[in-house]
């Protein structure tokens, strides 16, 4: 495996507190009691064979279908041994006839970030990129626009809930050239799907935020370099039991949502040295959602990558590979207990050592989360960043080109994606702000001053493209929100998230109001598209996952229900009464 250099401790922002004792985000004591675990249970279930990690024969009984596909042929060979070149030359219909090549199309290509949209977009692929910290350039944006433009109405792009791009409409024959083009602008889609580490998330205001604790960009970049082997492939961690999410916290606002990541780095000092306390195990799934728990561990910046490697290898070696609903890392933590899991991590550290958590957490617990949409001053004098609202994250090729032009003309050619599916233009000279705000794109599409409800709206792909989605989400989310806004006035932020199915890519459990797609029945007993409504999700230091408020609500009946929720739980005022009082 490639070797990587490590960062020296960064300077801590002068505006950040240097010490805060026993912050609730990373308490020193873990809540999970370690059970007795048989020694044979701790035998690694995988072994290295010819450079790839393979499940041992003795552990193959009862494994899931996806594990069998991985055993039949190593997915990373498509990239690392150039098999994609030959695959892309074959007629798609022929590939679909044989089980092995059909598995390539529907499963193994996900290791290259390619997702076949068999159910709703047959023969077309979505490509998911790696974009650490959500930072991208105008040149990269123009290249992605050029890719989706060639596919006409089938091509579009989405900003995802992991600060990332997904581009749509791709045909397999074009993939080798697209991969070369991505590399030419410093991008990769490698290891962004299936049983791999997802895009490393960081503070979208990293390096420009007057109140940041630490600039997360160097750390998310290091993580991405390690995870993908500098975009060449890192097969030591591509055979995980399931997907795995990681984030680095850089601000008190917790824009990065640490409580829903498998590994979250929480800034903390120890004995005068900067580093991170660790949270582990947060995840969403159809059958279970769990918040991350403290590992009772602190690492210096030098050990940031070694501890990530150790945690991933413990999960790879010991994780369950049967029922896919029970293969996320938290299930392993439950089985071993937090101390048992921690001891397995320690075994895999370079010097078999891992310090206990620090009490000097740098994240302020009492902190009101700031809004990044609109115009805000940067820490650099004379510069501002401008947060743009991208309605439910959907963007067309011409809009991407315009965003690239605007980033060049008014900023430094940089754009930043956020987990709320929005985009930030940093480094705008204050003297250029008024001209920027008059740009037609900002006036007509991507407003820096959206309505309160639109500002907090998030939606997954939905069944327009995704075969797992039960309902259409993006257009419905916009339509319901527009209709609700005609009836009530809202004066406080309300975050509404839509997801098309129980996989909850739209993260409905962290929303104030969440809508999860399901089938419902109308007043005549006829099956119709509906949602389960969630209420009470919180983000920040007092994070809490929302609970079911009402099940199986037909989508056509949502507007009056949402109005009722907003009035009774969020202080909304009916517009008729508001106008009458005036």
Mind explaining what this structure looks like?
With 582 residues, the chain is an alpha+beta fold. Helix content is 27%, strand content 20%. It has 18 helices and 24 strands. The strands form 6 sheets. The protein has a 5-stranded antiparallel beta sheet with strand order 3-4-7-6-15. A 5-stranded antiparallel beta sheet has the order 5-16-17-14-13. Strands 8, 9, 10, 11 and 12 form a 5-stranded mixed beta sheet that branches. Helix 9 packs across helix 11, helix 10 (329-336) crosses helix 11 (338-347) and helix 16 (474-487) packs across helix 17. Mean pLDDT is 91; it is low at 1-31 and 578-582.
Entry keywords:
single chain, disordered N terminus, 18 helices, five-stranded antiparallel sheet
Offer a concise description of the structure:
The protein has 582 residues and is α+β, with helices and mostly antiparallel strands. The strands form 6 sheets. A 5-stranded antiparallel β-sheet has the order 3-4-7-6-15. The chain has a 5-stranded antiparallel β-sheet with strand order 5-16-17-14-13.
